[in-house]
Every structure is written in C-alpha cells, then in structure tokens.
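Worked example 3 (structure in, sequence out).
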C-alpha cells in the first residue's frame, strides 16, 4: 500500500521538474522501494487516460467506432504495456549512454510526471473537443510541445545527459507510445459493416 507521503513526494518532484527546476530531482525517491511505489502513478492516471482516449476517439471529424466486446480485453493489457515497455527500453538506453546507475531515478521521475502531464493533456483535450477547428491544431500543438519539453528536461536532468541524447529519449517514448496505441486501436476498432 502506498502512503500519501509517497504520492506527495513523487508529485512534488514531478511538479518541480515540470517547472524546469533541477532541484526537483532531489525529491525523486531513487530507491528500489521508490521505484516500485512510483508505478502507483499508473493507478492514478488510468481513469484519466481512458477518458482521454475516449475523447480522442470520438473526435467529430473522424470518430472511431469501438468494439465494446473486444475493448475490455485489449485496453488493460495495452495500458500495462505502455507503462512497462518504455522503462524496459530505457534500461538498455541508459546503459548505452553510460547512465545505467541513474535509470531508477529516471523511471521514478517519469512515472510521476505522467500524472502532471495528464493534468494538462486531459483539460486541453476537452477544450479542443469543445472549440474544434480552427483552434484544435494550435492548442494541440502547444500542449504536445509542452509535454515534450517536460520529458526532455526530465531526461536531461535525471539521466544527466546532454540535450541531443535527451531528445532521442523523448523520441523513443513517442515512437513506443505510437506503436502501442496504434496496435491497440487496430484491435478494438469495430469492423466496418459490409
């Protein structure tokens, strides 16, 4: 069971890192216990993640018909895979970068940062859905840029790497997420009536 103090500490670290404050890494619990506890962020994020997906999939220009019989069997494992694939990939990347000893701190900070990122992405998606074109693209672009900047700064600080490798870390996250999301969507889209 995770204590409220652990959640506050994790979110405090993420909040400070989201303000581009290097001191946020001091709050990161880079112990094995902190590593395990940081995955509690997945439980906090889950309802908002599902709501965010439903908002995106119901976008009026190209709504997606979800197969309700298949979705309950695909969404949970896809969600778990989203939380596991990136940290596992980053284990190897951190070793290649010579920062294997900083991998735990990176994963802990990144897990808690997901809560902060959702707190921005979800309301922005609601605003985008309400406003629609022509505001959707500039707002979505601004939000994606902010989220990428946070991810870049987090990698840069927690792994103690230069800007270009930190950008690669962000691209890796985006590619893995896109692959998993795309596969998940293909599996749950309702077949076209023919």
């Amino acid at each position: 069971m995770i204590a409220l103090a652990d959640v506050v500490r994790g979110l405090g670290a993420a909040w400070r890192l989201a303000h581009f404050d290097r001191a946020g890494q001091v709050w990161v619990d880079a112990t094995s216990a902190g590593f395990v506890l940081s995955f509690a962020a997945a439980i906090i994020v889950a309802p908002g993640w599902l709501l965010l997906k439903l908002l995106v999939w119901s976008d009026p220009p190209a709504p997606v018909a979800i197969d309700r019989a298949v979705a309950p069997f695909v969404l949970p494992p896809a969600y778990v895979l989203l939380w596991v694939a990136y940290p596992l990939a980053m284990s190897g990347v951190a070793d290649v970068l010579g920062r294997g000893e900083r991998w735990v701190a990176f994963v802990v900070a990144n897990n808690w940062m997901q809560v902060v990122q959702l707190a921005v992405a979800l309301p922005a998606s609601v605003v985008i859905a309400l406003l629609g074109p022509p505001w959707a693209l500039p707002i979505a672009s601004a939000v994606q840029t902010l989220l990428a900047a946070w991810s870049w700064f987090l990698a840069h600080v927690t792994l103690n790497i230069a800007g270009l490798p930190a950008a690669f870390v962000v691209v890796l996250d985006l590619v893995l997420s896109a692959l998993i999301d795309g596969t998940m969507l293909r599996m749950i889209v309702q077949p076209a009536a023919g």
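Notes: DSSP finds seven helices and no strands in the chain. Residues 103-131 form the longest helix (29 residues).
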